[in-house]
Design a protein that fits this description.
single chain; 228 residues; five-stranded mixed barrel; SNase_OB-fold_sf; Excalibur_Ca-bd_domain; signal; endonuclease; Staphylococal_nuclease_OB-fold
């Protein structure tokens, strides 16, 4: 009985947790890294949605969409639970916008039926599918959980995702030039003195080898010069 009570207490405390901070990394269309207000990096898995895997069609587009929404922005995360990988699973909010829901509205993620119960998410997916937004432009789009179950590891080289049809941005969505990382490329630079912005330095530590710009390994580069 005591063991059951302790488990219940742990689950309740996790569910009630709210995290606040700054998004410092985007892994894919449903996973990001939050730097909390007490400077602790926390991996966040967006709850009730499942984005295309990196090697699926629209995998990179979904990642870029999430980057546009939250990268280097202040967010609040309503944590529901923790998954088997130690990630905090919850709803991410920037301003008054539910980012999880926005990814579905844009056609950049599926409603994760196995774990989801929010009817707003289900309805948003239905609307995005009817409008052929994002990944729904492909009538044969394969859900990530089906793709993973099939044991696929890469997308055939000849297959490219069609141009995405996107809805108008939500009112809470604002332009964020620093989130657009496609303008940068690994070119051998390694030091903060060679960077021109925090966004550029962040791109380099995430994507480029042998970079020496994060001395304390907290995920934030060039804190004295650029990412203050």
């Amino acid at each position: 009985m005591l063991r059951f009570f302790l488990i219940l207490l742990f689950m309740t405390s996790v569910h009630a947790e709210t995290l606040s901070g700054h998004i410092i990394g985007i892994n894919d269309g449903d996973t990001a890294t939050l730097l909390t207000t007490d400077r602790k990096p926390v991996k966040i898995r967006l709850w009730q949605i499942d984005a295309p895997e990196r090697d699926q069609a629209f995998g990179e587009k979904s990642k870029q969409s999430l980057s546009d929404l939250i990268y280097r922005k202040d967010v609040t995360v309503q944590v529901d639970t923790q998954d088997q990988y130690g990630r905090s699973v919850g709803k991410v909010f920037v301003g008054g916008m539910d980012v999880n829901l926005e990814q579905i509205k844009r056609g950049m993620a599926w409603f994760y039926t196995q774990y989801g119960s929010d009817e707003k998410y289900r309805a948003a997916e239905k609307q995005a599918k009817a409008a052929k937004y994002g990944l729904w432009i492909d009538p044969a789009a394969e859900a990530p959980w089906q793709w993973r179950a099939s044991g696929k590891t890469s997308r055939p080289a000849a297959v490219n995702p069609p141009a995405a049809n996107l809805p108008a941005p939500s009112k809470a969505t604002t332009s964020n030039p620093s989130a657009i990382v496609s303008n940068y490329r690994c070119d051998g630079r390694q030091h903060c003195s060679q960077m021109s912005s925090c966004a550029e330095a962040t791109y380099f530590i995430k994507h480029c080898p042998n970079v020496k710009m994060d001395g304390n390994n907290d995920g934030i580069p060039c804190e004295k010069q650029w990412c203050k």
